[in-house]
Amino acid sequence: MLSWLDANALTMINGVALAAVLFLIAVGLSLIFGTMNVLNLAHGAVSLTGAYIGVALLDGSATMPNFIVAVLAAAAVGLVIGGVLAVMTSSVKDHLRQALLTLGVALIAGDVLREIFGADVESVPAPAGLDGAVSILGRQYPLYRLSIIAVSAVIAILLYLVLERTRVGAMVRATVADRAMVEAIGIRTNLVLGGVFGVGAALASIGGLLAAPILGAQPGLDDTVLLLGLVVVVVGGLGSLKGALVGALLVGQLQTLGVAMLSEYASFLLFGAMALVLLTRPRGLLPAKTGAH
Q1: 50 touches 67 (CB < 8 A)
Q2: Which residues contact residue 124 at a Cβ distance below 8 angstroms, ignoring those fewer than 6 apart?
Q3: Which residue ranges form the domains of the chain, and what is each CATH number?
Q4: At how many degrees (to 10) do helices 241-261 and 143-165 cross?
Q5: Which residues of 256-272 are buried (b: 16+ CB within 10 A; e: fewer)?
Q6: In this predicted model, what pLDDT tens digit does every residue of 103-152 receive, in sequence order?
Q7: Secondary structure of residue 264 in the 3-state scheme
Q8: Using CB atoms within 10 A as the burial measure, which of 46, 80, 122, 162 is most buried?
Q9: Counting beta carbons within 10 angstroms of the beta carbon of residue 169, is it exposed (0 to 12), middle (13 to 18) or buried (19 or more)?
Q10: CA-closest candidate to residue 238, choices 97, 28, 84, 88
């Protein structure tokens, strides 16, 4: 067992790095559905947009200040896209229609990005200072991947504090629990829910940019990201911050270990695990108690 862990330690750390990116993408998807009851199939396209923002702004080299500017730009673009999608879906209550509408948006966005950036795989450099490697168990491991894990952990803590310990989080939970009552006391619930949609899209865009130095940016990546994000949400539980974190960690490990050890059966392993969770816990491992978080 110890020899197996030693041989696969870096692969497992890669799984945590993938989980960090998947968490940023899936938590937004989960919160949007949990608070607004909107099935947003454009989420992967938002993530790919963030990756292409990195391609456009970093242009083959990246200083730390430039990389931070790119992250802020990705967040701002995500907020705007989220706000637009919130308005577009506000009057669409049927999940099938939501899926068709947001899928249409995703297809249009994918075509636009392809026209602008082409169909080739575009690379995004890691920022200077994080483009080296550190020694782990006597082997070299990319420092940038460790930084992604750290950034994702900080964002997860901040999200938890905002949702659980602030007035904004209380308004979000109250809006989900009893929207009419919250409106009766003068709070504009459309702004609250639209804000959640915007933050969720911003997190997806940031996740796409942070993943770009590892995954690059290319047409079709949005579909892969959306699919993995949906698996994370299903496994972890809709509307749950903790569920998104646990689901991302499980999916990250299954994906990386599966590809490394059983490459021909990696997808079967991933979706088999999802099916097992659905059979034993239909609402996911850690579903939200109120649907708000």
Answers
A1: no
A2: 51, 54, 55, 58, 62, 209, 212, 213, 216, 217
A3: 2-280 (1.10.3470)
A4: 160
A5: bbbbeeeeeebeebbee
A6: 999 999 999 999 999 999 998 999 999 989 999 888 899 999 999 999 99
A7: helix
A8: 46
A9: middle
A10: 28
Is the CB of residue 200 less than 8 Å from the CB of residue 28?
yes
The dihedrals phi and psi of 136, each to the nearest 5 degrees, come to -130, 120
CB-CB contact of 251 with 231 (8 Å) = yes
pLDDT in tens, 52-102: 999 999 976 789 999 999 999 999 999 999 999 999 998 888 989 999 999
Max Cα distance, the chain (Å) = 62
- Reference 211, options 195, 198, 222; nearest CA is 222
Closest CA to 210 of 108, 116, 130, 117: 130
**Inter-CA distances, 63 with 128, 152, 203, Å:** 5, 20, 22
The neighbouring-strand residues paired with 142 are 133
Run of H or E residues at 52: helix 43-58
Burial of 216 (0-12, 13-18, 19+ CB in 10 A): middle
Which residue type, as a one-letter code, is found at position 131? D
> Can you give the pTM of this predicted structure?
0.92
**Token pair in block for residue 287:** 């579903």
Q: Which two tokens stand for residue 208?
A: 């796409």
Q: How many CB atoms lie within 10 A of CB 1?
A: 5
SS3 133: strand
Beta-carbon-side half-sphere exposure of residue 53 (alpha carbons within 13 Å): 28
Distance CA 213, CA 88 (A): 32
252, two tokens: 């990250």
Write down the number of H helices and E strands in the chain: 11, 2
